[in-house]
Amino acid sequence: MALGTSIGGLAAARRKGEASRGPLVTAAGLRALAARIVPPLVVLGLFLLVWQVLCDRPGAGLPAPSRVMSEAWPIISDPFFDNGGTDKGLFWHIVASLQRVALGFALASVAGVLLGTLVGQSEWAMRGLDPIFQVLRTIPPLAWLPLSLAAFRDGQPSAIFVIFITSIWPIIINTAVGIRNIPQDYRNVASVLRLNAFEFFGKIMLPSAAPYIFTGLRIGVGLSWLAIVAAEMLIGGVGIGFFIWDAWNSSHISEIIVALVYVGVIGFVLDRVVAGIGQLVTRGTASA
What we know:
Blueprint: H1 2-21, H2 27-55, H3 65-77, H4 90-121, H5 123-136, H6 144-152, H7 155-180, H8 184-193, H9 197-235, H10 240-249, H11 253-281
Helix pairs in contact: 3-11, 4-5, 4-7, 4-9, 4-10, 6-7, 7-9, 9-10, 9-11, 10-11
C-alpha cells in the first residue's frame, strides 16, 4: 500500500512538473517579442531610408548612411587599436570616459544620499540648504569647468568634479523627497522599538526612500554621461568627448556619427543598469 501510494505520488508530481514547465517557446511569447522588436526596427529602417535619400546627393552637408559605413569602417571593425598617445580605438576612449563617470557618479551618489537625508530629516537644514541647492543646480555643467580647472590645475580631476557637481542635485532632491514621505507609522514604530539613529537610518529611512533615491540616481547617471562628453571636448586627452572633437577638427563627420551612436547606446545601457539595480534593491517598487 505504501509502495503504491509512493509510485502514485511520484507520477502525479511528474505530471505536475511537465504541466508547469510547458514549452519554452510559445506562439504568444513570439507575438509579444515581435510586438516589442518590430516597431523600433521599422522606424529605424524608415529613418535610415529618409536619411539615405536626403543625403545621397551632390552637395549634401552630411554623409549618407552607406557613406558613413564605408568611411568609418576602420574604427568600427577595429575598436581596440592603440598607437600610443591619443591615437586609440573607440573602445579605449569609451573606457576612459566610463572610468571618469564611475568615479564622479560614485562620489555624487554617496554625498547626494547623505545630504538628501539631512535635508529631508531636518527642517532647519532644509530651510538653510534648499535655497542654495536650488540656485546651484541651475548652473550649466560646463560653467563649472573653468572654476574646476583653476582649482585642480589638471584636466582629469576637473572632469570628475564636473560629473560630480552635475549629477549630485537630482540625487539630493529625490532623496530628500523620499525621506519626507516616510509614513508617520514607520516613525512611530521606530520610537516604540527605540531604534537608535543608525538603526533608524538603515532599517527605516533607506528602505522607505529607496524608490525615490534610485529615481535620482537614474537622472544623475544620465546627466553624468552628458556632462563628461562635453567636458572632454574641452580638457582633451583620451575620452569619447575628445574623440568627437578631434574628428570634427579633422573633418571626419562619419566618425562623429559613429561615436554619437556609441554615446547613445552606452547612455541607454547606463540607465538600464541603474534601473535594474533599483528594481533588485527595492524588490520592484522603483520605477523601471
